[in-house]
Amino acid sequence: MIRPDDTALIVVDVQNDFCTGGALAVAGGEQVVPVINGIMPEFGTVVFTQDWHPAEHVSFAANHAGAEPFTSIRLDYGEQTLWPVHCVQGSRGAAFHPDLDDSRAQMVVRKGFRPGIDSYSAFFENDRETVTGLRGYLVSRGIRRLVLGGLATDFCVAWSAVDAASLGFDVTVVLEACRAIDLDGSLAAQVDVMRSAGVSVVEALPAGPA
Hints:
Blueprint: E1 7-12, H1 32-39, E2 45-51, E3 72-75, E4 78-81, E5 107-111, H2 134-140, E6 145-151, H3 153-166, E7 170-179, H4 186-196, E8 200-202
Parallel strand pairs: 1-2, 1-6, 2-5, 6-7, 7-8
Antiparallel strand pairs: 3-4
Helix pairs in contact: 3-4
């Protein structure tokens, strides 16, 4: 392996609904696939995350009378953006992009499966208390450094990166392996948040040791 054994790749939500033609498409989302496929062989530990919502999920605008997608409501755990129906459990939209080499994933973290709470981060649901179990898995594997790519830069990637840094991991986000929704300037804002949290945000993955 080119990367040290204590370094893992986290591939965030590279699913059909976040790619062109999907229900919540990120512009150019599928462009991350060859980048991620290209770097995956450098890592001995690879984890995928997967949005996995029930149809009645609280984050879907369609489940709130008169609500429009991309507006917000207040829930017990805070402000919640309302989204188009996406990544419904078992649907084609929830599946990984067909060109993504998912055979390399040793673990898949499914998130957002609880009807009453959304989950952007790979580590915590949006109440900031309910854990996904990913930290324990990584610690048990001796992982100390994380490299992140996927969709979308300014939501699930950013939240995962900031949480990982807060948990003591050394974190790098590779922008060429990500694409953003950029809702009302959210990309620039979240890049600033990541950097302020100690996340290294780079355009391309630096070369590893030979």
